[in-house]
Amino acid sequence: MINPSQSRIGAFLNSDKKIIRGVEKENLRSNAKGEISNKGFPESLGSHHFNKFVTLDYSEPHLELVTPTFDNNHELFEFLQQLHSYVEKRLDGDILWNYSMPPVFNKELITLPDAGITNKSKLAFLYRLGLRNRYGDKMQSTAGIHFNISFSETFIKNIGIGKNEFYLGIARNFMRLFPLALRLTGSSPVTHCSFLKGRDLHVEKLGDENCYLPKSTSLRVSRLGYYSEEQDKNFITFNNLNEYLEILSRYMNTPNEKFSHISSTSEKYEQVNNGTIQMESELYNHIRPKAKQTNLRQYLQLQESGIDYLEVRSIDLNPFSEIGITQNDLLFWETFIFYCAVCDSPPISSTEIESIKENIRRASEVGQECNLINSFDGENAEIDIKELTSNFLNSLRASLKDVSNEDSYDQMFEEFENRNNLPISTQIIESTLKNGNIISFIKEHSQHVSLKNNQELYKLFEEEKASSINNFQAHLSSDELEFDEFIKKFREETK
Fold first, then answer.
1. Which residues partner with 382 through β-bridges?
2. Over the stretch 212-244, which tens digit does the pLDDT of each residue have?
3. Considering only CA atoms, which of 40, 207, 54 is closest in space to residue 109?
4. pLDDT > 80? residue 183
5. Could you tell me where the DSSP H helices lie in 160-237?
6. For residue 74, what are the CA distances in angstroms to 294, 331, 403?
7. Beta strands in 50-173 (DSSP E)
8. What is the mean pLDDT of the chain?
């Protein structure tokens, strides 16, 4: 087990203790029958191109809700609750599907957002088209939550290392410990069989309409879900930023044989390029170092100013919460990343790479009952995942006692210790059996949120809707370059 460093805990105690966090939450839209919605982005939410709180991820039915950043967990949760409630009241009878695997899947209903007329919107369309041609609509139609987090400069300074090494150290520890988080938060062990139709996968039937892996925690994180075999071949160690950027550049600029048959020329654009990834956002790591948003793309901004925060990407929607995530879930991810920050983090060795990959595979596909490989100390011992998770929670609780007296953490730990004994994934399988199928179960847990409006936030959402429409109109004729020149310049930026 990775153990906290007392010097790092002391560095936090002697800092301003500020932690900044934000959330991006995806939901597919479903009709009342539990089928993917055939409706476009609601006009009542403004323009998805410019609304900073509500946008589209992959397709028209694939909504993404985005919060600002907060230094207070409770304020973040309230904002997300209010935003979720605001959006679902404007869906014209549809619901926000409260599960990471899609409802009854129909490829004909997966419509890509229109290309628009600006170069930026055309690029976004081409990127989505490339995803469709590379991976298919099914993989892109899973949904999840991204948790963004950063720490104060005084904390990093007190440790005595640069911010790049600080955040990359967290990322390394995250990869080591992520399998334990999957046991506690993985919430997608079952899917409607329509999702797997035509795919050669070793799943079992659960009733007439459901397919599952009996001991799975998260199909979405597994090789059956949001997964790229091409990227998995070259594991990113997060050992230094230059290496990370070099891998990004190579991925984007070196033709990948698997994708070379898809046209990327001006004669017929079907993808942005024929590299392993088309652009930075196609990198499917479970955690990603990020730079603050500027006019520069992520690669160039990371190159220029370094890492400003981390994006935790592989969080399943929790169907037992009416908005897909609970206050305790947010607390857990915050404390999980904090733990990764206060533990020393040596470089990931070539031998450790394989055990990390195998542990994530086991935790996602059989994490309700399996062993993990404890390779951190070089022993490669096989240890029961439940035992490891229990030890981890105890260590996490002990580290927090040194820095916080909040009762909310005790409540969170009590819940998560119960989850270790009875994982959410197990409860979902049991509920599926009780309801007859996964669709009926999730429909019951995707009902409208009963919440009193926060008038201040409601006004903010309305103002953003109006602003997004105005911005869309203002950008209709703002481009100076032809698209061919624009995309040529875009490709050259990372070489």
1. 373
2. 999 999 999 998 888 888 888 778 989 999 999
3. 40
4. yes
5. 163-185, 229-232
6. 28, 9, 18
7. 54-56, 62-66, 95-97, 145-151
8. 93
Do the bridges between strand 62-66 and strand 54-56 make them parallel or antiparallel, or are there none, so unpaired?
A: antiparallel
- The contacts of residue 19 (CB under 8 Å, 6+ apart) are 71, 149, 150, 151, 152, 334, 338
DSSP 3-state of 229: helix
22 membership: H or E segment, kind and range = strand 19-30
- pLDDT beyond 70 at 199: no
Domains and CATH numbers, the chain: 6-492 (3.30.590.20)
Whole-angstrom CA distances from 442 to 72, 147, 197, 211, 342 are 30, 23, 20, 15, 38
Tokens of 29: 């839209």
Q: For residues 252 and 300, give the distance between their C-alpha atoms in angstroms, rounded to a whole number.
A: 13
State the pLDDT at residue 408. 76
CA 447/CA 443 separation, integer angstroms: 7
Q: Is the pLDDT of residue 264 over 80?
A: yes
CA distance 329 to 321: 10
pLDDT digits (tens, 9 = 90+) for 129-156: 999 999 999 999 999 999 999 999 999 9
* pLDDT mean over 376-390: 85
| Predicted pLDDT at 249 | 95
Total Cβ atoms within 10 A of residue 14: 12
Does the pLDDT of residue 376 top 80, yes or no?
A: no
Q: Does residue 478 register a pLDDT over 90?
A: no
Q: Which of 458, 210, 163, 198 is nearest to 309 (CA)?
A: 163
**Tokens 């409208």 label which residue?**
448
pLDDT of residue 271: 98
Residue 411 has pLDDT above 80, yes or no: yes
Please report how many Cα atoms fall inside a 13 Å half-sphere around the Cα of residue 491, on the Cβ side: 19
Q: How many CA atoms lie within 13 A of 279 on its CB side?
A: 20
Spatial CA neighbour of 284 closest among 139, 109, 81: 139
- DSSP per position, 309-369: EEEEEEE---TTSTTS--HHHHHHHHHHHHHHHHB--PPPPHHHHHHHHHHHHHHHHHTTS
Specify the pLDDT at position 196. Answer: 87
Residue 205 backbone dihedrals phi, psi, to 5 degrees: -85, 145
Q: Calculate Rg over the CA atoms of the chain.
A: 22
Report whether 8 contacts 343 (CB < 8 A).
yes
